[in-house]
Specification:
Order of helices and strands: HHHHHHHHHHHHHHHEEEHHHHHHHHHHHH
Strand order of the largest sheet: 1-3-2
Number of domains: 2
Number of helices: 27
């Protein structure tokens, strides 16, 4: 037990139950416990204390963790916060939401029993988190990888025992990821091997081969059982509404969120049609001045547009970049992550990272690909680059990681995070970064269109109204995506409930907040000042930011009723 944890427990014991200090002590104890119990996530967040371990997925331990979260949640709910300061009440609402999310996954989703992806993701994430940054000498990371690889066969066998109610859709995606991850283990990982002695390298190779063999066997086991599995199991409307309010702190229910998605879908679908050339909304490499020759040229071309975007932001005083902001790099997406991330994913600096660098992992380059994200990146990468980098995720999350309040620093509200990045796409377009009726403007409209379609898919999949095939078809017909991207989007929506609603829901909330802010500031309004204040609060729900920014607790109170 660390000295910091001992101190937190002593404070918790000494503080009255109604004292805000007790809340913060409970939060510190919880974060320390969570980080210890989930070593791969800790590695990914830049905390490398348990780099040689995987989580303990023995079912008694899983049940023990769920019980711990529920007990702590009950204690937090019982805190008499009336009379606390606004800041302390905000922290209480945020910490409760964090616990509500963990409890919901254990009580409702129970992915350890239903989702085989849990075990594949732990294996691939366990290695990927050791490779993505040079936080320690190569030998140190290679030895940690060897230890994790050795644990994988038994870990996967435990996964088989736990999966008493596996879902066929999740099993298919897990099998695809397990078979598609060989390059991560056999190529990427081996870049660390040169730092090892002969016996150490042999141990790494043997552990790697056993892990890859276990992953393939796990995939075969899943594929053999798929015909006997439920195709998909939705959480239902009541649980969906509960998550919206208790976790996202949204003053909306599923029906209202779906209506928002439909309204925005109609809007952006119509705006595409109002372009002088509506085909501009569908990226076309044939219109590009330069088509990269290979993967390296593709990555370099992507990265090369970042400088001009930063200069535009600074020239127009649209955002302030903090001095601690690190570099933002573009890298190739490992195959293991392709099934549910067809467009790649952003990897920001972790909560505990000493290195401020962030990455955006993009799909393997193919100039003839039908994948929307590849075509968009060839023609004009700036809309997606702005979403993932600056002023989007990389900037906003880097700022959130520097908040002094631990509860707020630990909070990662998906609705605000994705809403801010999507808002930035249209904001840059409307502020003049792109010429009128250009491919970039068309791409911004298409990106908003299919983000709006994500809401309909997420709500209808998880409340039980649609099948997976209906979700794919909706992405293609309403969202305007190709089949490859549509299948990946639907898989991502199914695998990560309520994540896909964040983009358009958060953007809509931010637009409403912007209008109210401007009305209040009057002639003193400046857009850049709004942006700076907005993201200074970190990754908090917009209902909380409205209380902090405009002194309006109404939306948060509505969510918590």
């Amino acid at each position: 037990m660390t000295l910091a944890l001992i101190a937190a427990l002593l404070v918790a014991a000494a503080a009255p139950a109604s004292d805000p200090a007790a809340l913060h002590a409970m939060a510190r104890e919880y974060y320390a416990w969570r980080d210890r119990e989930d070593p791969v996530s800790s590695s990914n967040q830049g905390l490398h204390t348990w780099d040689d371990q995987l989580s303990d997925e023995a079912m008694p331990k899983v049940l023990e963790r769920r019980k711990h979260v529920e007990a702590l949640l009950a204690r937090v709910k019982a805190l008499p916060t009336v009379g606390w300061s606004k800041d302390d009440r905000v922290d209480a609402a945020l910490f409760r939401a964090q616990l509500e999310q963990a409890a919901f996954f254990g009580r409702v989703l129970r992915f350890e029993e239903t989702n085989p992806q849990v075990y594949v993701d732990e294996c691939s994430g366990g290695i990927f988190s050791l490779l993505k940054k040079e936080y320690a000498p190569a030998r140190t990371r290679a030895l940690a990888a060897t230890a994790r690889l050795r644990r994988m066969p038994a870990f996967l066998e435990q996964g088989k025992k736990n999966l008493t109610r596996p879902v066929a859709l999740y099993a298919r995606l897990a099998a695809e990821a397990a078979r598609g991850g060989d390059d991560l283990y056999q190529t990427s990982l081996m870049t660390l091997a040169e730092s090892l002695s002969g016996p150490e390298k042999q141990a790494l190779v043997e552990a790697r081969d056993a892990a890859v063999s276990a992953l393939h066997a796990y995939a075969a086991w899943l594929e053999e059982g798929i015909p006997r599995m439920a195709a998909f199991v939705p959480m239902g409307r009541a649980n969906y509404d509960l998550y919206l309010r208790r976790v996202h702190l949204l003053p909306f229910n599923a029906e209202q969120v779906e209506m928002l998605g439909q309204a925005e879908l109609n809007r952006y679908r119509g705006l595409e049609s109002l372009l002088a050339d509506p085909s501009l909304a569908s990226p076309d490499p044939a219109r590009a001045k330069n088509v990269p020759a290979d993967q390296q040229a593709f990555l370099a071309a992507y990265q090369g547009r970042e400088k001009e975007m930063i200069e535009f932001l600074q020239k127009n005083r649209l955002i302030t970049l903090p001095a601690y902001l690190g570099p933002f790099s573009i890298r190739q997406l490992p195959d293991a992550f392709k099934p549910t991330s067809p467009g790649g994913f952003m990897n920001p600096p972790g909560l505990y990272d000493k290195d401020p660098e962030g990455f955006y992992f993009i799909p393997t380059y193919n100039p003839k690909s039908e994948n929307f994200y590849i075509r968009a990146a060839i023609e004009d990468p700036r809309p997606i680059l702005g979403h993932e980098g600056i002023p989007g995720h990389f900037l906003q999350i880097s700022i959130a990681n520097h908040l002094p309040d631990e509860i707020r620093r630990q909070h990662g509200d998906n609705v605000f995070v994705e809403g801010w990045a999507l808002y930035g796409e249209e904001m840059l377009s409307r502020q003049g970064l792109y010429p009128e009726n250009s491919p970039a403007q068309g791409q911004v409209l298409r990106l908003s269109r299919y983000r709006a379609a994500r809401i309909g898919v997420d709500v209808n999949l998880h409340t039980g109204n649609w099948t997976f095939d209906e979700a794919v078809r909706y992405f293609m017909e309403a969202g305007g995506l190709d089949r490859e991207a549509a299948e990946g989007e639907a898989a991502g929506a199914a695998s990560n409930p309520l994540q896909k609603i964040g983009y358009m829901t958060g953007k809509s909330q931010i637009m409403g907040l912007l209008g109210r802010y401007r009305d209040r500031k009057g002639k003193d309004f400046r857009l850049g000042a709004f942006h700076d204040e907005l993201i200074s609060y970190g990754s908090l729900p917009v209902s909380v930011i409205e209380w902090l920014m405009l002194d309006d607790p109404g939306p948060l109170e509505s969510a918590l009723r």
